[in-house]
Specification:
Helix content is 41%, strand content 19%. It is of the alpha+beta class and 468 residues long. It folds into three domains: 283 residues, no CATH class; 111 residues, no CATH class; 58 residues, Arc Repressor Mutant, subunit A (Orthogonal Bundle). The strands form four sheets. It has an eight-stranded mixed β-sheet. Strands 4-3-14 form a three-stranded antiparallel β-sheet, with no helix packed on it. Strand 12 and strand 13 form a beta hairpin. Helix 8 packs across helix 10 and helix 13 crosses helix 15. It starts with a strand and ends with a helix.
């Protein structure tokens, strides 16, 4: 049995300052070590001042994940020594003395499976290590503290995942959720980082760090399952350790033995008093939350007549939901929903692939209108869509270049159908006896026309010929 749990580090965005000082929260594109002050680099005598907006955004994530938010939260020092941690401790939260983190006991539904959220904690991001050099002999490590102190939310799940695929689906849902409520931008480099904890057959837990993307965490987990299973098959115990993902070689590499909780020597942060979260504040934040996925799904069903299952798939992904809402009109909403959920999601099923799409609302709207008005078949529409997302060309260009235009001329279709009748004499006899077998002949016509035959006209001609 495989058990997988996640620790997701999500940077909070749209904040003016860091978590405990007035330095800029947006550290990107700044000269190295220029975005620092005595507080965020831990100079003696400096004191932290908690950013209220960061607490509110962390609370919104807790609300979105259906977590319990305590009346009081507190902060602790997590002690460990690493070059990117200037104070030699990280200010974070800790639930050993009761629920004092910003959220706990939440849940997320994916594919009829409930993933439990153990806790959500607000903490400061460490700095960044930058490696320079062309080989191991010339490699040097540089430290940039611009990121140190940036507001970060850590989301810790229970080990409820059984497959790497479930992990990727969950991460896509989570990324869309934090983007939808306006507290994070998952597309920024380093804004959403994931560590995976994995064990098989109740063995020791291994942590995988240094994973750059959702696609890579899935690959890393697949590799680790294979590695651990291979060890167990040879009666070699799996060591409890932290391993790094080597993106170039697509393997995990041992980094160090796994730290236990007591190794961090958690101590209450005496410089930050206990924070009382008033119920009125939570109520106000709840009002600011955008339209929920459930409300959006119900709207799609009632207003546009979209099937409930399609509406659920569409509303659960902010990227595609936004695309639908910008592209549709009163006449093509159902067709656009069908194109997005049936075809487009299949072409781009990860966040990385979504970012590569060269498609606009105009592409989707034009394609839906063309299908509705019988200018192109659904089969040809799928080919056109694939070409548009690769090249960004307009629908008219794609139809012309790939010769995807509808075959609706009656004389042309009759000639093709006559050919099919000659080639499929047995099927013709069966179709005259059983009308349900007509679709076989329709399929043969579609194959001859490369999916360009008008289905309605094709069926009408075939039925007339069968009756004669």
């Amino acid at each position: 049995m495989t058990k997988i749990g996640l620790e997701i580090h999500c940077q909070l965005t749209k904040l003016e300052s860091k978590l405990f000082c007035k330095c800029k929260a947006d550290y990107r594109n700044l000269p190295p070590n220029s975005n620092t002050c005595p507080t965020c680099v831990g100079l003696p005598g400096s004191l932290p001042l908690l950013n209220r907006k960061a607490v509110e955004k962390a609370a919104m994530i807790s609300l979105a994940l259906e977590c319990k938010i305590p009346e009081k939260i507190s902060f602790f020092r997590k002690n460990y020594f690493y070059p990117d941690l200037p104070k030699n401790f990280q200010i974070t939260q800790y639930n050993a003395y009761g629920p004092t983190s910003i959220g706990s006991e939440g849940k997320v539904e994916i594919e009829d499976k409930e993933i439990r959220i153990r806790r959500i904690q607000l903490e400061e991001d460490p700095g960044r290590l930058i490696y320079e050099g062309s080989s191991e002999k010339t490699l040097i490590t540089l430290v940039d503290y611009n990121r140190a102190g940036t507001p970060l939310v850590e989301i810790v799940t229970e080990p409820d995942f059984e497959t790497p695929k479930q992990v990727r689906i969950f991460l896509n849902v989570l990324a869309d959720l934090v983007e939808n409520i306006g507290v994070a931008d998952p597309y920024l480099e380093g804004a959403l980082r994931v560590d995976g904890n994995i064990s098989i057959v109740n063995g020791n837990r291994v942590e995988i760090k240094n994973v750059g993307s959702f696609r890579d965490i899935e690959k890393a987990l697949h590799f680790e399952i294979t590695r651990q299973q291979s060890l167990l098959d040879r009666n070699i115990p799996v060591q409890a350790e932290t391993r790094h993902w080597d993106e170039a070689r697509k393997i995990t590499i041992s980094a160090r033995t796994k730290e236990e909780e007591q190794d961090y020597r958690y101590l209450p942060e005496a410089d930050i008093p206990v924070v009382v979260i008033d119920k009125g504040i939570i109520d106000e934040l709840q009002k600011q939350m955008p339209e929920s996925i459930i409300a959006k799904r119900d709207l799609y069903v009632k207003k546009y007549g979209i099937p409930s299952q399609v509406a659920q798939v569409l509303s659960s992904d902010k990227f595609y939901a936004d695309l639908f809402e910008k592209a549709h009109n009163k006449t093509n909403a159902k067709e656009i929903a069908n194109i997005i959920t049936t075809d487009l999601m299949g072409f781009a099923d990860t966040r990385e692939k979504k970012m590569e799409l060269k498609i606009s609302t105009t592409h989707i709207s034009d394609l839906a209108d063309a299908i509705i008005n019988n200018k192109i078949t659904r089969n040809s529409g799928k080919l056109a869509l694939l070409e548009m997302i690769k090249t960004g060309k307009s629908l008219s260009e794609v139809i012309s270049n790939l010769d995807l235009g509808h075959v609706s001329d009656v004389n042309s279709l009759e000639q093709i159908i006559d050919e099919v009748f000659k080639e499929e004499e047995k099927a013709v006899v069966e179709a005259r006896q059983n009308a349900d077998t007509v679709n076989y002949l329709v399929g043969k016509v579609m194959r001859k026309t490369k999916g360009k035959a008008d289905p309605a006209i094709t069926i009408e001609i075939i039925r007339k010929k069968l009756s004669n």
